[in-house]
Specification:
By secondary structure, the protein is an alpha+beta fold. It contains nine helices and 22 strands. β6 and β7 form a beta hairpin.
């Protein structure tokens, strides 16, 4: 335990000294803020005659909640016949203690055209920080625009897919069996519990948030939470949200996680999937939808580049200059909206010291640290790299060559100085 405390102290010192000065965002409280996000990544099949009850854990409290449903990848409209918003009776449960119908400009049904999104009217529901909300949607025959998070077996985000028919209004879990548990990592439409899976739902927002705005974390699988399996089983973004939730509302920020596993920061073919349906569009192409359109966004936190620099079966590694240029384009668009831009350095990837990809990673990190382009820099590389071999993470803190384990994620989330978020 003493050794762990010393490591944390050293990490915090390393991170704080890496923070660059920047301007502070406006202190005015927004009219609305996003409390939770799921960046949709692709389209996988058509919804059968079932209801999907999606469990999302909001990062900050708020009332007058709204949900945004999207159809960014479908070739046909998503026809929402019924949608409800409720509060589960217990963490992760499909049984609800309250449930209210959602309307869209006063109507109970809505058609979402290809490439479009709709936001519900405000619902008379309040939730506290870290509380689950349940969004039940009945849209049979619609293209399933989804996000499959790395699954945490007992914690949200998750979905229950019902037995046949419309069960959106039900408070009982009778139509939403918890078994079988459908393994995460691949989309599925079978009745049962789907840890990690979300359909159509990409935002939960509040008209009256108990926070002054939102931090959107833009990234890949490390932000998405891949391999952050517990205990404690939290992504670094969840650790950050828990820390922010302890602040007074006037200083508090919500966290909206815009991470997608396999995502890239440069506009190149995805290295893992030639169909383009696994990993979302590259960050520049999804920036408007997943970041700039998010209500209440004040700060963008960028952690991306691993997949570009590493390459894969379907795309070669991307040069450092191209990754830097992509980041510069994102920065320009974020700052044009007068938002704060924070970046983290790219984590070690188990590449040999003389590997060109490792040289590219070091070059990108050097630019992140020294260019002065960002409002602040958090040195995640310094947090987790092994002093005995800086090309890899500390063995006890990594799940594989690219990803921290739960202990590594906990260190990342704890090492961010809250002051850099504006």
């Amino acid at each position: 335990m003493a050794r762990f405390r010393m490591l944390v102290a050293a990490v915090l010192l390393a991170v704080v000294t890496a923070v660059a000065p920047g301007h502070a965002a406006s202190a005015s409280r927004p009219a609305a803020a996003a409390l939770w996000e799921s960046s949709l990544q692709g389209v996988h099949g058509v919804a059968p005659d079932v209801t999907v009850r999606q469990i999302a854990r909001v990062s900050a409290g708020g009332s007058a909640l709204r949900v945004r449903l999207g159809n960014p990848f479908g070739a046909t409209p998503v026809e929402v016949r019924d949608a409800w918003l409720g509060l589960p009776v217990a963490t992760g449960s499909a049984a609800l203690r309250s449930n209210v119908p959602l309307t869209f400009r006063g109507r109970r049904t809505v058609s979402i055209p290809p490439g479009g999104a709709v936001t519900s009217d405000a619902a008379p529901i309040s939730a506290g920080a870290g509380q689950d909300v349940a969004v039940s949607v009945y849209a049979p025959g619609s293209p399933v625009n989804d996000h499959t998070f790395p699954p945490f077996p007992a914690d949200p985000p998750a979905s229950y897919i019902s037995t046949p028919g419309n069960s959106a209004a039900a408070t009982s879990a009778a139509s939403f069996p918890a078994y079988p548990v459908i393994p995460g990592g691949t989309p599925g439409t079978g009745t049962g519990y789907h840890p990690g899976q979300i359909w159509w739902l990409d935002l939960v927002t509040s008209d009256r948030p108990a926070a002054r705005g939102t931090v959107v974390t833009l990234g890949d699988s490390i932000t998405d939470g891949y391999q952050a399996i517990g205990p404690p089983g939290q992504r670094w973004t969840d650790v950050l949200a828990d820390r922010l939730a302890q602040l007074p509302p006037a200083r508090r920020l919500a966290v909206a996680n815009a991470g997608i596993s396999g995502n890239t920061v440069s506009d190149n073919p995805n290295p893992y999937d030639p169909t383009g349906q696994c990993c979302g569009p590259p960050a520049p192409r999804r920036l408007d939808r997943d970041v700039l359109s998010v209500p209440g966004v004040r700060t963008v936190f960028l952690l991306e580049g691993t997949n570009d620099l590493g390459g894969g079966a379907y795309a070669p590694p991307v040069p450092a200059a191209e990754v830097i240029a992509a980041m510069q384009g994102i920065i320009a668009r974020v700052k044009a909206r007068h938002l704060r831009m924070v970046a983290a350095t790219i984590l070690p990837m188990c590449l040999a010291a003389d590997d060109p990809r490792e040289a590219a990673r070091r070059a990108v990190n050097a630019w992140i640290r020294t260019s002065g382009t960002f409002d602040a820099v958090v040195d995640f590389d310094a947090v987790l790299r092994d002093p005995a071999d800086p090309t890899q993470m500390v063995p006890d803190l990594r799940a594989d060559c690219y990803h921290p384990n739960a202990a590594g994620d906990a260190l990342l989330g704890a090492a961010i100085p809250l002051s850099v978020l504006g």
